[in-house]
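As a warm-up, study this chain.
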Amino acid sequence: MRPLLFMAAVSLTAACTTNPDFADSLARESAKSVVSGIIATRFPGLQVAPVTDCVIDNATSSEIILIARGALTGPTAETTSTVVEIAGRPDTIRCIAQTGPSVLTG
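Now compare it with the structure written out below.
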């Protein structure tokens, strides 16, 4: 099983180094799944998808990578702290506000 995982990791790494858009897309999708879980837990009462999109759109590349690691290892305190920090940034808050009242559930 390990050789198969190693081969998959090598293939993904090769694909990522030859196609940076693919690497970015893969990291963002992985990070979205982590952010969604954190948003649902830390900010109950908000619709997860639009808030997640705003957090991802306002994260730096290094933050995306840090968060995406949580998809493999599970979110850590650092992951959660990073997501909460991004969610509190003025541009992220503005993004969430632009989604309108529909971002609130209930």
